[in-house]
Structures are given as structure tokens and as C-alpha cells.
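EI: anyone free to look at a 117-residue chain?
SC: sure, send it
EI:
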Amino acid sequence: QVQLVESGGGLVQPGGSLRLSCAASGSIGSIYAMGWYRQAPGKQRELVATITTGGSTNYADSVKGRFTISRDNAKNTVYLQMNSLKPEDTAVYYCKANHLLLGRNYWGQGTQVTVSS
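SC: here you go
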């Protein structure tokens, strides 16, 4: 079964940038839709961005224009480029893989992003 490992989180100043990576243990190109979610303390986990096997993307309104999700199927990796970061972006960011045939979700362990001056 696919395993997901996020990396790239850390501390950043408001207005700064980070690039998160989600490395999958197996091939994701033809059968997994991918997404990034985040969860801040005291809040529910929320959708940040999704990308289909064909490369179609969707974003939460709060990040549209600032964040970009992409995938490199040859590397079995999904990325989240985060620009113009705001303190309200502070959260644990999780990678999700959705098996299109099984309808099953696989989650990574998360990576902390903290935006603070």
C-alpha cells in the first residue's frame, strides 16, 4: 500500500515561501488523485489543494493565487509551492492520496509549517 512522507516544513517569515514535498512509496501517476490538507490547532482539517491524475488543480479560496500544487509522476512526488505566506497559514500540512478505484484515502504523517515574525 502506498506510503506518503511529507517534508519541507519549517519556520518562515510572513511573506516568505516554502515548498513542501510528498514522496510516495509506489507509483501514483495513473490511479491516485493527490491533495494537500492542513490542520491548525483548534480547527478541523481543511482542503488546501488537489490535483488529478491529468493535472487538473483546485485550491481553497484562502490560498488561491499564492499556492501551487504540482506532481512529478516519474518521481512519485507531489509538491506544494507556498508563496506570500501569512500567519494564518500556520498549520500541520498533510499529503493525501486517493485511490480512484478503491475510493480509499492514504495520509502522510504531516509536516509543520509556522509563519511568524
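EI: The first strand starts at residue 4 and ends at 7.
SC: 👍
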